[in-house]
Write a structure and sequence with these properties.
Rossmann fold, 58% helix
C-alpha cells in the first residue's frame, strides 16, 4: 500500500493538537507515565494528535538533563498545541503548564469528556 504523503501531511496538520499535563514525580513515576500514554492512545483513537511530555522520562533515563531543560521544551510544545488536557493528580509542574496555556488563551480541559464535547460542538458549528 502506497502512502499519499501530501494527504497524510494535510491530515496531520489539521488534527487538533493536545498537550497532556499530569503528575510525574508525585506518586509512582512509572504509573504516571503509563497513565499519560494511555490517555494519548485514547485521544489518537478519537482522531486527535496528542503531545505526551512524559515520553521525556525515557530520554532522561539515558541522557539526564536539568529540570529546567524539560520545562523549557514543554512550554514550547504548549505554544504550538491547540489546547491542554489536565489529567487529575497533584502536580505543581502541571499546574504551571495550565497557567501558561491559560495565559496564551488556549482552552484547558479537565476531562476527556469535556474536551470531546467542546470539539464536537465546534465541529458542528463549522459545518
Amino acid at each position: 500500500m502506497k502512502i499519499n504523503q501530501k494527504k497524510l501531511i494535510y491530515e496531520m496538520k489539521n488534527k487538533i493538537k493536545i498537550y497532556i499535563a499530569s503528575a510525574y514525580t508525585i506518586g509512582d513515576v512509572a504509573a504516571n507515565v503509563k497513565t499519560q500514554i494511555d490517555v494519548a492512545n485514547e485521544l489518537m483513537n478519537m482522531g486527535f494528535n496528542p503531545y505526551v511530555p512524559l515520553y521525556s522520562h525515557f530520554q532522561h533515563m539515558i541522557h539526564p538533563r536539568p529540570y529546567q531543560d524539560w520545562i523549557e521544551r514543554d512550554l514550547e510544545w504548549i505554544n504550538v498545541c491547540d489546547c491542554l488536557l489536565r489529567i487529575p493528580g497533584k502536580s505543581s509542574g502541571a499546574d504551571m503548564e495550565v497557567q501558561y496555556a491559560t495565559d496564551l488563551n488556549k482552552p484547558v480541559f479537565y476531562s476527556k469528556e469535556e474536551l470531546f464535547s467542546y470539539y464536537e460542538k465546534n465541529k458542528q458549528r463549522s459545518n
